[in-house]
Design goal:
The complex is a heterodimer.
Chain A (H helix, E strand, L loop, with lengths): L1 H19 L14 E7 L4 H17 L3 E7 L5 H11 L5 E5 H9 L5 H11 L6 H5 L11 E13 H7 L7 H11 L7 E4 L6 H13 L16 H14 L12 H5 L3 E7 L3 H5 L1 H4 L20 H4 E4 L2 E2 L3 E2 L1 E9 L5 H14 L2 H8 L7 E2 L2 H4 L11 H5 L1 H12 L6 E2 L2 E2 L1 H8 L2 H10 L5 H14 L2
Parallel strand pairs in A: 1-2, 1-3, 5-6
Antiparallel strand pairs in A: 3-10, 4-6, 4-7, 4-10, 4-11, 8-9, 12-13
Chain B lengths: L4 H35 L1 E3 L5 E3 L3 H7 L2 H32 L6 H7 L2 H4 L2 H12 L5 H9 L13 H28 L4 H9 L4 H29 L3 H6 L6 H10 L5 H25 L4
Antiparallel strand pairs in B: 1-2
Classes of the chains: A alpha+beta, B mainly alpha.
Chain lengths: 457, 288
């Protein structure tokens, strides 16, 4: 009996050794017949998931051998979920991911660069906006993913309040700080600005635009760390000063609700906000609700959309814009049939009807990376009338901005992959949290961040 | 092959327990040992892993963040255990007396414990929101107790205490229920005899009630320490600024740096601390 028990125990204990042998992978084999795979999307809202499901159903109706499971994954959880899937050896063949995240996964060697590159060539490299493709390229010219849609960030502000106060639009450092101070009236529950102060992506997105406008980067074009520079320190100090006019405590994008409730003068946000400003149904989730009639900000302000303007560029030493390209990435698989099926589904997502259906989930927020779609009349006629509301010129400006997105990870046209890892590790947001919320001084916090960045290989 | 009766019985015994051994092996022993394996390796997303000896442990122990997380965990476990136990005991003693509507009150007290964590967390977050929350609305606008609004639930200086109060509020009903059931089993003759001897209420509590519920209290405290040392969802969902060891492990292993090796090392250290504590506690307090 003892021996049988020992055999069982040895069997149980040796499992880690069997599974841990990650270096050896079985030979890829093409499977005939039905294929099933997972598509991870960062569109976690139920209405968007419903639209994606319609696209999947349409595709699988044409391709009955393929079945696709749509898995929603929050953008901030994506790295963790991919980590877990990689450890378990069941990475999905197709994911939607912000470009910086896709690049950081790419440097870990999990992206199928051959399949991604082949599909880009198949669709036609010249059909994409060149700026969007560049963001997904490795230093050796391979593609970690395909650009699918993108948004531009800016400061959205109460133009009516600014006009009344005789303030200039928030497009320079001085103008922004002046207005933030002016409108900060905590005793009236009104706040000057919203910039991110929690340790997550939103904070980095707000900060990057300031840093780029001050000519402050993380690496030089040869990949040397130049983070701890006077320009960066000046930006960090300015950002910390600005954060004093935030609503109390650590804040993230969720606090945009306070703007919709009329309690804030400015906030950083992407073009995704366009429908929340213009449509009562979209704004409902941001209002305080009818249950607490005493609380201000429970009714939709139909004038808000007309009283709101967006400053898409910030100037200090030079004007800087910021945005994000969201990509679709094919990941390495053991089974070539799965890759083929995922690639075929992705090709379908780029066909005109499917593409426009996808983008119309969030008009303004999701902008095409294919030139021919942006000028397509069907695309410009979205069901919610957002395009009509904001006008074709504004939309063209947004799409134009998307083609010239700058990031820390491209210096003088060269891809610095380490910068994407710094982004994925959220070192900058953690540093800003330490300064703005834990009261650490700028020098110590920057020294901490520099040390963390030095660890990045 | 048949063997003696004893051998046959032994074989039957093995067959009977083998499903349990296999399940425990796969679900408990395998993850523990795989975790141990990971803690000695540097793991890449692509599955490649490299043996690095004790360097993950050295990195963890040399990291100030780890010691901050350790301190937060110690504070969290200490105050939540003391809080839930004392509060649970007081409520149990009160509920042990007869009063009208006793049944209803006893059941209502269980609500925080049985309500799903996520819904209670949202309620707390809404309640304490600095700009729209009812709490600040009352404190600042209605009663003027504070001059300015502040972020009670997310600011680093308050967040740990909010998480502790939340845990006490959420978990005291369990303690209360356990103690109450033991209280009801105490022989009333003991109290009557004590009264004849002239014992007061306080003396009765210390000389009869407390010794009677000693082992229940001891077990509850032990379970609470184990549960709260490993507590993840309550803290993680309520506030993102309290890094106790399980949350710190999660951040290490699954976000940003994605360092599975160090994450595993932290969980092994935590496991070792917990096991040593349990052994000491069981010997000294529960006297097993």
């Amino acid at each position: 009996m003892k021996r049988t028990l020992s055999v069982l125990l040895i069997l149980a204990l040796s499992l880690p050794l069997i599974f841990a042998n990650g270096g050896k992978e079985p030979e890829p084999a093409v499977k005939a017949g039905p294929v099933e795979f997972e598509f991870w999307t960062t569109e976690t809202q139920s209405d968007r998931l419903a639209t994606i499901q319609v696209l999947v159903d349409t595709y699988t109706a044409i391709n009955p051998d393929v079945s696709i499971n749509v898995i929603p994954v929050d953008e901030n959880d994506l790295a963790g979920q991919i980590q877990a899937a990689a450890a378990a050896g069941n990475l999905p063949p197709l994911i939607e991911a912000p470009s910086e995240t896709a690049v950081s996964f790419g440097t870990e060697g999990i992206m199928d660069t051959a399949a991604n590159g082949a599909l880009i060539n198949e669709i036609g490299k010249d059909k994409f906006y060149a700026g969007t493709l560049k963001l997904l390229q490795s230093s050796t010219g391979e593609y970690y993913a395909l650009p699918y849609h993108g948004w531009v960030q800016g400061i959205w502000y109460r133009a009516d309040w600014f006009k009344e106060a005789g303030l200039e639009p928030p497009n320079t450092w001085d103008n922004i700080l002046k207005a933030a101070k002016y409108f900060y009236k905590p005793d009236q529950n009104q706040y000057g600005i919203l910039v991110g102060t929690t340790a997550e992506a939103y904070t980095e997105q707000c900060f990057t635009q300031f840093a780029l406008s001050n000519g402050a980067g993380l690496y030089d074009k040869d990949g040397n760390l130049i983070f701890n520079s006077p320009a960066m320190k000046e930006t960090v100090n300015y950002y910390a000063e600005l954060a004093k006019y935030n609503p109390p405590g650590p804040q993230t994008w969720r606090a945009r609700d306070y703007y919709i409730q009329g309690k804030m003068a400015m906030f950083f946000y992407s073009t995704y906000i366009m429908d929340d400003l213009a449509l009562q149904d979209a704004a409902a989730g941001s209002l305080t609700g009818d249950n607490f009639a005493d609380l201000a900000g429970s009714t939709f302000d139909p004038e808000l959309v007309n009283n709101t303007k967006m400053a898409s560029q910030i100037t200090k030493k030079n004007p800087a814009g910021y945005g994000t390209i969201v990509s679709m990435a094919l990941l390495k698989q053991d089974d070539a049939a799965v890759t083929d099926a995922a690639k075929s589904f992705l090709r379908y997502l780029y066909t005109q009807n499917a593409y426009i259906t996808f983008l119309h989930m969030a008009p303004g927020g999701m902008n095409p990376t294919l030139k021919e779609i942006s000028t397509n009349p069907r695309f410009q006629n979205d069901p919610n009338g957002i395009f009509k509301h904001y006008g074709a010129d504004k939309m063209a400006e947004i799409i134009q901005g998307m083609d010239s997105i700058e990031t820390f990870s491209i210096v003088d046209g060269k891809r610095i992959e380490k910068a994407s890892k710094v982004y994925a590790q959220q070192i900058i947001p953690q540093m800003l949290y330490k300064i703005t919320q834990e009261g650490m001084d700028t020098d110590s916090a920057m020294a901490w961040a520099e040390k963390e960045m030095q660890k990045v290989q | 092959m048949k063997g003696t009766l004893q051998q046959q019985q032994a074989r039957l015994g093995v067959r009977l327990i083998s499903p349990a051994v296999i399940i425990i092996g796969l679900l408990i022993i395998y993850p523990v040992f795989y975790n141990l394996y990971l803690s000695f390796h540097s793991v890449k997303l692509s599955g490649e892993s490299r043996f690095v000896g004790l360097s993950n442990y050295a990195a963890v122990i040399g990291d100030a963040e780890f010691w901050r997380a350790f301190l937060s965990t110690a504070l969290y476990v200490f105050f939540t255990t003391v809080g839930t136990t004392l509060f649970g005991l007081i409520v149990a003693l009160a509920m042990n007396k007869e009063f009208p509507g006793q049944g209803l009150v006893r059941s209502l007290l269980l609500l925080p414990y049985i309500a799903p964590v996520i819904s209670v967390v949202f309620a707390w977050q809404f309640f304490f929101d600095p700009v729209n929350g009812i709490f600040m609305h009352l404190m600042v606008d209605k009663w003027g107790l504070y001059a300015e609004r502040f972020n009670l639930i997310r600011s680093p200086q308050y967040a740990l205490w909010v998480a502790i109060i939340f845990s006490i509020w959420k978990n005291f009903p369990f303690t209360y229920l356990m103690i109450l059931s033991r209280l009801q089993a105490i022989d009333q003759n003991l109290y009557e005899a004590a009264e004849i001897d002239g014992c007061t209420g306080i003396k009765k509590f210390f000389y009869i009630t407390l010794p009677e519920i000693y082992f229940v209290l001891g077990s509850i405290v032990l379970m609470r320490i184990i549960w709260n040392m490993n507590k993840f969802e309550d803290i993680y969902l309520l506030t993102d600024n309290v890094k106790t060891l399980p949350i710190y492990t999660y951040f290490k292993a699954f976000t940003g740096a994605l360092d599975m090796g160090q994450g595993s090392a932290i969980s092994i250290i935590q496991f070792a601390i917990l096991i040593s504590f349990i052994i000491l506690y069981v010997k000294k307090v529960l006297k097993w």
